[in-house]
Every structure is written in C-alpha cells, then in structure tokens.
Amino acid sequence: MDGLTIGAIYALVALGYTLVYGVLRLINFAHSEVFMVGTFGALWATRWFGIKIGATSVHHGIALVLILIGVGLVAMAFSGATAVLLERIAYRPLRKHGATRLAALISAIGASLFLQELFAQKWFAQRVHIGIRTFTPFPRILAKTQLFSFQKANFRTDKVLIFIAAIIMMVVLDRFVAGTRLGRGIRAVAQDAETATLMGVNIDRVITVTFLLGGIMAGAAGMLYVIFFENTLNTIGFVLGIKAFTAAVLGGIGNLRGALLGGFSLGLLENYGASIFGSQWKDVISFTILVLVLMVRPTGLLGEAIAKARA
Amino acid sequence: MAVARSLRVVIAPVRRATDVARQRLDDAGRPTQIGLVLIALALLYILPFLKIPILNTPRSDFASVLFFPVGIYVLLAIGLNIVVGLAGLLDLGYVAFFAIGGYTMGLLGVNAHWTFYEILPVAVLASMAAGFILGTPTLRLRGDYLAIVTLGFGEIIRITARNSDPLGGPRGIFGIPHPSTTFGVKFSLLDPKPYYWLLLTVIVVMVLMVRRLERSRVGRAWTAIREDEDAAELMGVPTFKFKLWAFAIGAGIGGMAGCIFATKVVSITPDNYTFSLSILTLASVVLGGAGNLLGVVVGAVLVAYLPERFRVFDEARVMIFGAALVVVMIFRPQGLIPNRQRASELTENTGQGGMGTLGAEVVARPPTEVSDA
Hints:
Chain A is built from 12 helices and 5 strands. By secondary structure, chain B is mostly helical. In chain B, helix 4 crosses helix 10 and helix 11 crosses helix 12.
C-alpha cells in the first residue's frame, strides 16, 4: 500500500511533466518546485483555518471533509499560479525569441533555484530542527487509523484517501483533455503546433492552460504528500521531481495514461526493491529500472504522444 | 513589462560592446592575438598575488576560491562543452565522472599509496571507461532520454558511494595525498596557490587540445551530428561512434577535474558530488554560449565566482543567481559569447510549438509510432 500511495503522488506530478512535454517537447525542469509550492500552500491553508500543530488538529466528519477540500483547493491554486507564472516569466519570452530548448532548460533551472531559495527564507518556512533533520512540520488533520489489512498490505485511512483522491484527479484530467474544447486544443497543439495555429487554435492560451493543469495536479500531489508525510521543506521537490519524471518517461512521456501507469509501477517496484535490498538503495533501484526499460522499449511502456493516444 | 524594457535598455549596450570587441579581436593580426593571450595568461598566473579590491571575495580566501569553485568549474565546463556544445548531447549527470575521478584518486592514493601524477592518467581512463559503458546503451536513445538516463547515473554513483563501505560510506575518504613537489613548488594543505597553478596549467593544455579537436575531422563530425544527425549519418559520418567519443572525452576531462579536486581537498564525501554541480556546470556552458570555448570559460567563471563574491547577501545570493539565469536566457538565449556557427543554426530553425527543436536534441519527431493506449 505504501507503494501505491507514493506511486499516486509520483503519477500526479508526472502528469505535469507529461502534459508540458507533450505540448512543448520540453522538460519542465521547474515542475518539481511547483509541487513544493503546493505543499507550502497546503501548510498555509491549515494556518488560515486556524489549525495548530498538536492533538487538537485532528478533525472528524463534515469539518474534516471541508478542511480537506479547502486545503486541497488552496494548494492547487498556489501550484497552478506558480506554474502559470513560470510559463509567463521563464518560458514565454524564450519561446518568442525562438530560443533553444537548452536555453529553456537553463532558464527553468534558474527559476527552480529561485523558488527553492525563496521558500528557504525565514518568513516562509517555520522550520524545526530535530537532530540532524530540518523540516517544516504539518499538522495531522486526519486521524490515521487502520481500516483493515489484507495479506501484508495495511489499508490506513490516509493512504486510502490519497489513492482515491489521486485517481479522481487523474480521471477528471483525462476527461478534460479528451472531452472539452480546450482539451482538444491541447491535443491539437501536441500533434502539430503549426497546423493547430492555422486551424485557429490560440497556442499561447493552450500552453497556459497546459501549465495550469500540470500545476493543479502538482498542487493536489503536494497536499496529499503533506498529509502522508506531515512535513515539508524547500528542497523536497528535487528528488520527487526526478522520480516523477522517471515515472513519466517510464510510462512513455507525452502520454497521460502512461504517466499514471509509470507512477504506480515506479512506486510499487521501488517499494518491493527497497524491501529486498534495503531502503538506502531505493533511488538506485528506480533509476536502474528506468535504464532497463528504456533499453528494451525506448518509448516507455505505453509509447508516446498525448495527441496519438486517443486522437 | 516595464521591468523588461528597462532591463533591455541596460543590456543592449553591453551586448553591442561585446560584439564589437569580438570583431576588433578578429580583425587584429595573428601576433597581436597571441600577444594578448600571453599577457592574459601571465595575469591569470599571478592573480592570487594581485590584491584587486573589487575582485576579492569577502568571507573566503581568494586563492581558494580561484581553485574551487572557479577553476574546477572552468575545467568541468570545458569537458561538458564537448558533450553539450560540440556534439549536442544533453548530459545532466556530468558530476558522475567528476566523482569517479575523485574516488579513483582517493582509493589509489590512500590504499595503494600511488602518487598524484601516477593516478591522474588512471583517473582519466577510469572516467572514460565509465563514459563508454554508460554511453554504449544510451547514446542510441533520443536526446531527452539521454538526459534522464545520465541524470539517473549521476545519482546512482553518488548513492552507491554513500552506501558502499569500501568507498567509505557517507563519511567518504580522507587522507588523500598531495602531489609531490614539482618544479620546486611545494604542495601543502594550507597554501591553495600551487593547486591553482596546477589547475590553470591543466586548463590551458585542455583548451589547446579541445581547439585542435574542434578543427579536426572529429570536430566537423560533431558539428554535423549537432546540426542534423540523420543527414550526417547519410553523408557517411558514423554518428554513434563520434557521439560515443564525445561522451568519453568529456567524461575523461570530468575525471581529471575530479582527481585534481580530490588531491587538494584531502577528504571527499558523497556530498561533494550532488546533482547541483551537474546543473551549475551545464548552466556555465549554456550561459557562456554552448560550443564556444571562450564563452564557456567566461560562463563558468561567472557561475562560480558571482555567488562567492556576493556572499555578503548570504541567504539571497542563490535566489538572485537563479533570477539572473532566467534574465540572461530571456535576453540572450544563445549565451553571452555564442558560437557563431551555432548561432546561425539557431536563427534558421522554425521550431515546434515555438520552442525550437535544436539544442540537445536532434530528432524532431518521435521515430516510432508506438501507441496502444
């Protein structure tokens, strides 16, 4: 169950990479920071709702549902806004100049450093030092009780919540891209940007929406992350971002359902691998899997292209 | 975008000035050029003795800063430039080769009691071998995948070093020997200047070597691959072989830098070899102008030196550096001192989704039509 929980978070973040890659053929390097901002958005939301860290933070019933939705919305708003700003400031001017993707990558790295350091400032992050660990704690909203266990898998309330919430988010995104006008625009641009422009698709708007969608997904992932781990830090985005990108490549970058599959399989494999080799080898395992998969199937498990998946 | 406009006003004259300066330098005769280079070199060698107040780095020893990060970044950027700038391959895990060089120095120096000058070639060969091993399966893949695989490789090396007891685990290796006295210069723990001179000499030799390579058959093959891999292959360039060589030579220079770094700092830990070093090296290459040696060196000096210089601002300096990267890329995406040939390639390209298809990636469209979703 741990594997599925973390896999769900990977998958949500991976969606952001895959969306942007599908449309722009660009690795949105700063996406990991979008996720990080989401975790802080969730944290501030709890503060605005007057939730303090301690025994009183656990809520039940309607209050719990409302708080969860509220926190989630704030986190998504934070991440979505960050993603759109990122596109406006760090990517769009470069696009207008016809710059290389390498230049865009560096610009993204710059933005990434900026955001990371911004959220290291004292007024952003009330940090706690315990031993050698430094982190910003997050209150426990949800009572973490064991629902039932099957074989060795423990179904705990928070894990089940994360799994279900992630699935809902992904279904909504999938419907959006498949069904709505803007979704069609996204697919059209992913398929052939120039032709899409000729057909009257507003490419700038499509790109903004793509970043916004990716940001919202990352925000949801951020909120679920803090509910599970109950802490955050300005640097958490990095490793998670690499993993999520790995998941996106694993499933076939540019393919939305591939991101889902990649996220879950990475989460599960990593967890099983860690139980065999020890958890310090977790990251090595996931990268080795990636390299092996790419050698056998260079386009990832489900192949590429948002556009071609269900055009 | 009033901010953007005012920034443009500041940047435009600087841009024009650098372009004019380059033109002047091109027009000057060969002897003048060589003379200028020699003067510049002499200045660089005595730089630790010159106490230039503006250049100085508050809160850290200037000569130390010249060695690390400045000198090391320059050497790394020269190596990465072969991979990224000349052959057009995106490598996000360059730090792996730096680490391999460092650990080779550490292991052989501490356990086998070899001297620095014996280990240096071994370290270079070891990193080149690692480059071959990593490159053989991955260089057949598309550019973006190469990026992520190299990134993964960089992390694997670091984590493996952290988790392996023979490599010292998280505490790393300590007691790495210094080079023996060379030309009457004694290497010791307290004086960073000899290391700076050693590094500077290596950098000069590498610059000369890379310049020769660039203008040889190999260099032309790399340019062809960067511009259009398919066309190059059709013209009879064995693209895979040359890509592999670019990767391995780049790796070798990375290993060399790692070896020199390790002998200076005496103790190395896995935390010396984080992903951010790969990224900052890449930033140096692109910032300065990928493919142009002078540009790359200038880029590396800026990336390494500016955060040290502005240590006074402490907390905000990395933040400002990040913002500066974005600003430079917006106004000068081809880098501060671009490679002319490459710059002309860039203006021609139409691009996909407006972002351009060149750069680290040559295949514009997915080669296969796999899709069963």
